[in-house]
Amino acid sequence: MPPRSSLLAAPLAALLLLLAPLPLRAQEPVPPTAAGPDLPERQAIASYLVSALGEPYRRGALGEGGYDCSGLVVSAYAAAGRQLPRLAAEQLRQGQPVEPGALRPGDLLFYRFNSRRPQRLHVVIYIGGGRAIHASPKHGEVREIEIAQSIWTRRLVATVSLL
Fold this sequence. Notes:
By secondary structure, this protein is of the alpha+beta class. The chain has one domain (about 5-20, about 35-160): endopeptidase fold (from Nostoc punctiforme), CATH 3.90.1720.10. About 30% of the residues lie in helices and about 20% in strands. It has five helices and six strands. The protein has a six-stranded antiparallel β-sheet with strand order 1-6-2-3-4-5, with helices on one face. A hairpin with a 4-residue loop joins strand 4 and strand 5. Helix 1 runs antiparallel to helix 2 (about 40-50) and helix 2 packs across helix 3 (about 70-80). The chain is globular, with a radius of gyration of 15 Å.
């Protein structure tokens, strides 16, 4: 039997693409700049991310049997025809700052969880409606999160766009 993520990927990707212009929560409207010339790239990134849900976390991996956080970003952007640096810190340096309230699907959020290693960053990819997808070392898989939860808001370092 195919993995659970393979069975659900196509229907979830189609649903995400249909709902992309709509807010997932009524109180948080999608910014009017969500559409634009980069919309196909943003949709390709979101579609890739949905297909990766449930895949295992593996440090240093780019999709060959799992992902780490920056590897998931590299792979998702590659699905949209974009080449990115491998490390989260390099991805941050390459991006253009974006206000958290102006995030669009495909934008990146960077977090710091380890105070003993402040140079180490964790990166997640925004998918709209206050949600993001990331490769979680804690949970051992690619999963969706709500970025408004305090565990995320307290540790936010930067938000950038690479599109």
